[in-house]
């Protein structure tokens, strides 16, 4: 995971589109690592509108080659052949957001945790709402698995990629995990 300050903008973000079955995801990477994964079926222009912080101060250039390793791992995950990622991330946010995203990376494949569990994991048990906001700002869907965070009562809650995408990702993981 990158440890980048919020103010440091990417100079160039190479981007491409992963198209696989019913999945179509905008994927962006810098020289430092995976920088952005958009919602299913969301165009680059819509990503810009919905996630202005990920685009501010950056030049996005269509270039499939540098993004290919990231797309390959995400595609393997969507096929059920990958349960963890080896790609580097270029995550940029506040120290609080980086702590939350780090906690997300520790959630095992096929499991779900509550927002309050993430707040406890980062040592801020009373910051559940702030944790929710940081999770909502996660620029890298799927590989930083914010889809694994659910309400304390087990309900599905908001997701930047939409609840339909969150449901599909959770179903994909639960189908791939052997019964215990």
UniProtKB/TrEMBL annotation:
One record GO biological process = DNA repair
Q: Tell me its EC number(s), please.
A: 2.1.1.63
Q: Which Pfam families match?
A: DNA_binding_1
Q: Which UniProt keywords apply?
A: DNA damage, DNA repair, Methyltransferase, Transferase
What family, per the record?
A: Belongs to the MGMT family.
Q: Where are the transmembrane segments?
A: none
Does the UniProt entry include the keyword tRNA processing? no
What is the species listed in this Swiss-Prot or TrEMBL entry?
Paenibacillus soyae
**Reactions performed catalytically:** a 6-O-methyl-2'-deoxyguanosine in DNA + L-cysteinyl-[protein] = S-methyl-L-cysteinyl-[protein] + a 2'-deoxyguanosine in DNA; a 4-O-methyl-thymidine in DNA + L-cysteinyl-[protein] = a thymidine in DNA + S-methyl-L-cysteinyl-[protein]
Identify this protein by name.
methylated-DNA--[protein]-cysteine S-methyltransferase
Domain Methylated-DNA-[protein]-cysteine S-methyltransferase DNA binding, chain residue ranges per copy = 95-174
Q: Name one GO molecular function term.
A: methylated-DNA-[protein]-cysteine S-methyltransferase activity
């Amino acid at each position: 995971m990158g440890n980048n300050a919020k103010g440091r903008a990417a100079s160039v973000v190479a981007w491409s589109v992963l198209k696989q079955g019913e999945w179509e995801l905008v994927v962006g990477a810098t020289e430092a690592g995976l920088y952005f994964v958009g919602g299913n079926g969301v165009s680059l222009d819509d990503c810009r509108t919905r996630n202005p912080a990920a685009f501010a101060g950056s030049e996005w250039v269509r270039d499939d080659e540098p993004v290919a390793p990231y797309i390959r791992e995400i595609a393997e995950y969507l096929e059920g052949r990958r349960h963890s990622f080896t790609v580097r991330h270029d995550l940029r946010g506040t120290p609080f957001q980086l702590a939350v995203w780090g906690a997300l990376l520790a959630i095992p494949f096929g499991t779900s945790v509550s927002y309050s569990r993430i707040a406890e994991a980062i040592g801020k048990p009373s910051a559940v709402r702030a944790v929710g906001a940081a999770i909502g700002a996660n620029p890298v869907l799927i590989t930083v698995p914010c889809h694994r965070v659910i309400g304390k009562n087990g309900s599905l809650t908001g997701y930047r990629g939409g609840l339909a995408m969150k449901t599909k990702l959770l179903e994909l993981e639960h189908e791939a995990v052997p019964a215990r």
